[in-house]
Amino acid sequence: MKKPIVVFAVVATLLGGYLAVAHVSGGAFATFGLPLGGDRGLLRRTALSFMEDIQFKDFDRAASYHAPELVESVDIPFLIQRLFAVRPEALDIMGYEVVFAELDSSDLRARVKLRVRAKLLANERIEERELILYFYRDDVAAPWYMKLEDSLRDLTPDADRAH
Amino acid sequence: MTRPRWRVLAARYRDGLFGDFGGTFILLAQAPLIGWLCTVVWGSIERDTPALYFVLCLTAVWFGCINACREIVKERRIHERERLFGVRGRDEVLSKAAVLAGIGAVQVVLLQGTVEWQLQLRGPMGLEILALFGASLAGTGLGLTVSALASTQERAVFAVPLLLLPQILFSELAIPDTLYSDVVAAAEKVMPVHWAFRVFEESAAVEPSWLSVAGSLAVLFAMACALILLATLAIVPRREVVT
Questions:
Q1: CATH number for the domain formed by residue range(s) A37-151
Q2: Looking at B62-71, B114-123, B124-133, which range is the least confident one?
């Protein structure tokens, strides 16, 4: 009777310790879907969600991480074309992972570095690229917005540009 | 039902080891400290490189070797006396290897965890921890062999660099593998660091060959078992120990 309790206590302590470390590290370790890691954890999850949207070519949703007034102006396919020098439809994003996520001293700006592995369908070549996503917020209680529009083409002055 | 003799010896050894809280703390604290130093160096370029993988693998072998190199020789007198009552060398080596494997496992988790905290490495973390554990276990085997052969604790410690430096010399860190002579290429194959490094390098590749990863892991653990077996053979001759 005593042994199962001891085993349970040890397992619970190890699991609790692991989750505590995962939280303090800002989600650097697997959190099994739990919302751990504070702001850095949230940014990691947002960045991964953004990459998943790109992987499945859901560019409208990928643009939705920007401030509401900018959502219409961002051009995700252009980012892909610039990053991999191929059209989005000729690209198979195979995998991606967060290298690190960090906040500045004011806690109002953040950046998330990603590693993206993709196959260029035209020549069957697999390439790896690194990408940094920048985020900002107006105050510590405000939501985070992506700041990708700086590196993207504004659709307004060149709306007819073909990808 | 009586417990196997090696488990009784392991329990005694574990109690003795963990009874020295300061020593255990230093043993375990060095892993995150070295991991942190790695993040300081590789954090400046914000990415992992093969050199980082090599340092991690070498550190794991180093940990195993240092942990084990004094452990048999310092208790050799006790063992020689217990041998008169039927305690066999393999029980002695197995008891040490089991406890040191546990310590090595904690060390490599702390080492890899500290690096991953700051810098996500390419390749699956679990697989890399397994490779580091294999390297640590092989290092433990090397250390136990030295410990079983040495006549004093000092000599055992002095022999450790002779085991660890070849890990660096016979590696791609010294010269590119395309320039290896046959001797160097053959020597590299018997270095535990080489096989752990191959796991890291292959699992980090753009197109990993998981078969090659599995093969390297198998070689690494086979090497660890062989070294522990070698330590068992080395403890067989009776030896006078200077304490």
A1: 3.10.450.50
A2: B114-123
